[in-house]
Hints:
Elements: H1 5-20, H2 30-37, H3 41-53, E1 57-60, E2 66-69, H4 78-86, H5 93-96, H6 110-126, H7 129-133, H8 135-151
Helix pairs in contact: 1-3, 1-4, 4-6
Amino acid sequence: MKISTRVRYALRLMLDIARHGPPNGEPVQLSQVAERNNLSKGYLEQLAVSLKNAELIRSSSGRTGGYKLARPASEISLLEIFNASAGPVNIVECVMHPEECMQVEFCRCRGLWQLINLRITDVLSDYSLMDLLDEKGLKRMSRELQQLSAAHPQQGQGGKRPPPRMSPSKTVRMPNT
């Protein structure tokens, strides 16, 4: 599963506005964001509409116009940015729309999909835009990642489990032929 370009770019846009916008200065212009982040201004304009409709950013027009956050970065969850740019987290249709699945009555996987959906939602709602901007938030994220990595060492190998280890007592000897 991959996070869409739309979500990634929306997050980059929000981070840039938070870093460079008021109270540090004038509202942020999309041309500046595009240049600093090597992104298409046209694509950023589309994202800005979605983020504005979700009331995460505000725009001002005129010569010094641009965008600023609608609320402090500490009050904007990453889940809100995800939802504004891509809609709600929904890894498979049956999670949010069980009526569309012909196997929902006897599906053994639906619970797994729901659990994955909820965990993704929990992580995104646990962190704010500010957490990505300041050292304290990044350290908290790093600590949590280290704890999870220690509990799940196979994830460091591309999701593959390490090969089983053979103990000396279980070594199979081949007869000489």
